[in-house]
Amino acid sequence: MSKKPYARPQYKVKPAVIIIIAVIVFVFSALIVIIQPSDQEKIYKAYNSAGSPNLSQNHVIESISVSKLGRLIDSGAPVVVFFGTTTCSVCVSEIGWYDIEFKGAGLVSELSVIYYVNRTNMSQSDVEKFQTKYAMTLTGTPELYYLNDGDIVARRSDFNSDTQPMAGQIRSFFTAVKNDLAE
What we know:
This protein is α/β, with parallel strands linked by helices. It has helices at residues 15-35, 39-49, 66-74, 89-104, 124-134, 166-182, and strands spanning 61-63, 79-84, 114-118, 143-148, 151-155. It has a 5-stranded mixed sheet, with helices on both faces. Helix 4 (89-104) crosses helix 6. The longest helix has 21 residues, at 15-35. The model has no long low-confidence stretch (mean pLDDT 90).
């Protein structure tokens, strides 16, 4: 008596099961994307938790990578860039004023954002490149620059004064930016 070999079982998955699994994966993926805080929320939370007294949730500060910033500067576009960190007490106290004075100078329609680079995320070679190529000091924080046509037009430190309060110095910086863009 010979035994019949068993045929390998064939599994059949119904199309409804595949569709249900695909929908579940899509829903979870969409939830992950939706729940992620925006760049604006991340900056607000980081500086607010560090004690920033006047940074609004609807601020104009946007993170940018060092490589993207280099390309943007090289393109000749006008750029305001803030190098700072949440561990810098002056950065924490000034960032809200940057937002207020940028908006107050009417720069939102012309520049739309202040680019933010977390100084602690820059490598030493990045720092040296920006020091050499763009004449930025980058020896401390905060550092705020306005560049146009690839050149520094104004830096926040140019407006430091013992006779003018911090907010006035920052206002003077953004007024200089506005005047340059009007030329």
